[in-house]
Amino acid sequence: MINVCEFIKRHFKNILIVVGGYGPSLYPEIITNNCIDILIKGEGEVPFKIICDNYFKKNIKNFDNIPGVITSKNNQKKDFYFVSDLDYLPYPVRKYIDGNNFAANVILTSRGCVYKCKFCAVNKFYKSCIPPWRTRNINEVVKELMFLKKRRPNIKYFEIFDDEFMINGSRVKDFFTKVSKINSLKNMRYSFAARANDIVNNKEILSEYKYLINEVFCGIESFNSDFLENLGKLYNGKQMVEYNIKAINILEKNKINFKCGFINPARPKTAEYLEEHLPIKIRDRFINWQNLIINLGKFTNHEIPYNAIEGDFAENKNNIYLRFEKVMKYYEKNIFAVISDLHKQGNNLSVYFENFFIYTMKYVKTADDKYYKLATNSFNKLLK
Question: How far apart are CA 342 and CA 219, in angstroms?
């Protein structure tokens, strides 16, 4: 972001540059960069409108008295600004993003979260907000959905972009009950994020309205209890491993499409540790091995085109061992070079692929051990 601001300021010196969002709000000291004129700490809709009105309509160049606004002249310790009533905000002006189907179909029904995960920017951003989780009236949400459907009658699904949609089960039931009774919305599908414990606690709602659900994203993070505890990923002081397993089983039982988020350890430890962190019987259900091959090369100079592997993966789509053999087949001559390139770039994918190798060292062996030995040797080089 700083690089972009520096580029703009270098070429357009008189442009007023305003930054905001999670990063600037949590690290307001970036205002000391000469390329940034104003930083909005917290939610930006109201402060940004005041800035624009002052600057363009009133020719006022002093912004220090605007809530949540930090400049190089005022105190960086200014309080976060949060909208007191989410229903007060107008609908986003989506006509500028109509070409982006995903962005044009996104809607928010709430902001914030009640949980305290240490790794999550949402928790840090909203911790001074009272309450930390605020909701819109479901009737207002339904009105906006109807408005969007009328604007774009051909859309098939909506993305509910709440940080955690299922915190309040009765609210979720109210939502699905209402959209299921409206002609323009009852055949739509809805995607959203939900924590494992909320999936378990609201399994009856998911079962009843599964026909309305397009996809659920669940941040599993790990199946290692110590790792989860270090992340602050708990529920009422209880470990989340059991909830993680139950949540996956509930979604699969109801044939609901879902994706899971995982957090890899900062550096790989042992195959045994990683097996507990993400067991192989679960791992293979969530790793897209085809994309793994492509992405492994995409960030380096060793890219493999999709069509080069499409046939192999179609032929061996149900065999984890043969699929890994294909991975090694395409990278056997330069696998170490690929990961070294990722390291040099400071690319986080390098850690992912290191873990990938330690997973495979324990569980994947071909008939002649050729690729197993290659993975082992490459990983040992990395540790040096």
Answer: 25
* Tens-digit pLDDT profile for residues 223-248: 888 889 988 999 988 889 999 989 99
> What is the residue extent of each domain of the chain?
2-71, 86-263, 289-383
CA dist., res. 35 & res. 4, Å (int): 9
* DSSP β-bridge partners for residue 217: 193, 259
Rounded to a whole number of angstroms, the CA Rg of the chain reads 24
Bridge partners (DSSP) of residue 261 are: 219
**Spatial separation of the C-alpha atoms in residues 9 and 27, rounded to whole Å:** 21
**Domain spanning 86-263, CATH class:** alpha beta
Of 123, 101, 93, whose CA–CA distance to 111 is shortest?
A: 123
Q: Are 261 and 219 contacting, i.e. CB atoms less than 8 angstroms apart?
A: yes
**pLDDT of 311-363, one tens digit each?**
554 554 444 444 445 555 555 445 555 555 555 555 544 455 555 554 444 44
Residue whose entry in the numeric block shows the structure tokens 């008189």: 14
> Measured between alpha carbons, how far is 63 from 56 in angstroms, rounded to an integer?
13
Residue 64 corresponds to which tokens in the numbers above? 């220090």
